[in-house]
Amino acid sequence: RFTVKDTGIGMSPEQLANLFQRFAQADETTTRKYGGTGLGLALTRALSSMLGGRIEVESAEGQGTTFTVTVPTRYEKKVVDAETGRELAPEQKSEPGDAPKRKVPSVLVVDDDPSARELLTRNLEREGFAVATASSGAEALAMIQASRPLAVLLDVMMPGLDGWHVLRAIRENPETKDIPVIMQTVLDERNFAYALGASSYLKKPVHRNALAEALQALTINTAGHEVLIVDDDEAANQRLMAMLHRDGWNCRMALNGVEAMKALAEHVPDLVLIDLIMPEMDGYAFIREVRKNPELDALPLVVMTAEDVRSDKVRKLSSETAGIVQKGSMPLADLVADLRRFADQAKTN
Fold first, then answer.
1. In 235-244, which positions are buried (b, 16+ CB within 10 angstroms) versus exposed (e)?
2. Least enclosed by CB within 10 Å: which of 138, 171, 263, 313?
């Protein structure tokens, strides 16, 4: 909860009634005297609502105003029923095992300290990674064996099976020996970590910038990755393909879903990037057709669209795709990095 209080001029009940309207201020003299567009509070209320919170105001003329913003400590995405379009209550939401989810790039955080796991998870999610966590060495090895992570962030000092034993087990297993492992510890044991096969080393407390740099340095060579770009904007396709070529990708282009289905019949790429609004066969129909084919069930489909990614129509695609990206929401270089993670994860699985 955040509270901001002043002892200024305050507001009347009539002014409070219109306070959160866009382009509206308490009265027309406010703009002349103080400036502003009348958008700030409207945006604050919208952002609070998106995060599952609210904004409240109390004010009295001549006494001042108090604004209070309340948001949950952890953001929980809304789940919408596919048939009714209504938001589901927490008890109605399906458990993770109720419906199959397509695999996405993940980093496994291994630490017996819950606070450390939460902090690392938050930092990794801000860098665009999906995150799995384990609280012990034994749990970590079981998770690594069951589902190969993109990388492992491994604490050293844990009860039972410590980080050094986990690292040795990862490296001795032919199926997991190539997974990048970043060791993290309060002790200065860099040389020992590298001698045992660590990919990188971070000293606790781990700062977000250092973590991001370590993960970027672990980028897997993308030589041989192939992407099929399905979008009717040929100029935009060419710009993206130029960036992907520099990153070592092989690229093909299809201007609609019909062309894309023909391209898949000729050769299956490592990943398909799809726009939703296209002539002849749009992205929605294309995704449905692809998922009808059992041989293409594991093919990562990534949606990149100008449509509102928060809309029910777009969000319903989440169970059929590896990711959904808002067009123009990130630099091309960041998009290429995300595509690389999706393709790398698909190959390891």
1. eebeebbebb
2. 313
Minimal CA–CA distance to 226: which of 267, 261, 194, 279? 267
What are the distances in angstroms from CA 27 to CA 15, 59, 232?
7, 15, 48
CB–CB of 120/206 below 8 Å? yes
Q: Which residue has the tokens 């703009």?
A: 31
**pTM of the model as a whole:** 0.43
What domain range is 124 assigned to?
106-216
Residues 6+ apart with CB under 8 A from 20: 41, 42, 45, 55
- Residue finishing a domain among 216, 243, 272: 216
Rounded distance between C-alpha atoms, residue 338 and residue 345, angstroms: 11
- Walk along the chain (349 residues) in steps of 10 and give the mean pLDDT of each run: 88 80 58 58 80 84 89 59 47 43 66 90 73 92 88 91 93 90 86 88 85 69 73 87 74 92 90 90 91 88 82 83 77 71 68
Q: Report the distance separating Cα 14 and Cα 110, nearest Å.
A: 55
Please name the amino acid found at residue 30.
T
